[in-house]
Write a structure and sequence with these properties.
Helix content: 40-55%
Structural class: alpha/beta
Number of domains: 1
Largest sheet: 5 strands, parallel
Radius of gyration: 18 Å
Number of strands: 5
Shape: globular
Distance between the termini: 42 Å
CATH superfamily: 5'-nuclease
CATH architecture: 3-Layer(aba) Sandwich
Strand order of the largest sheet: 3-2-1-4-5
Order of helices and strands: EHHEHHEHHEHE
Strand content: 5-15%
CATH class: Alpha Beta
CATH topology: Rossmann fold
Number of helices: 7
Amino acid sequence: MVAFDSTFLTFLFIPNAPCEVERAKDRIDYLIGSLQGSGERIVIPSPALAELLIGVGHSRSQILHELTHSPKFLIAPFDTKAALELALLVEAVARKHAGKKKGDSGGTWAKVKFDWQIVAISRTQNVSTIYSEDPDIKRLAAFVDITVKSVADLPLPPKPYSGKGPGLFD
């Protein structure tokens, strides 16, 4: 399974969301199609969903409907299992970083806790890759051997054959 954080959800649901990567929407649409084609489900950690819903205003109902009625998405709560996972991860990070429970994260403790929730939920859902633009998520996920990919890591969709130029039998 894979997970999307709030930035990828934003790119997915807000067509003109700013992104510095060329053809970001095409890359994400191609990723979604590839995941769907392989039968892969996309985990949406509930804290990431909350971050998205804060910023979308009147589109909340439509987004929630699509996420809850599509078999390709799984909204994963921050439950007891994820809470235990988060506690164990924070302890491990503090041990590795001389008692600093934030580790090498540059964010506020509130942001770090949100990021940890996303990583902990992802881990309890057996996620192999989190799609995120957040460098703190990347650092935290690496600590528990979850790969993080950004929009720049995604391939562009192959160009469809236009009928011009050399063909198979030319």
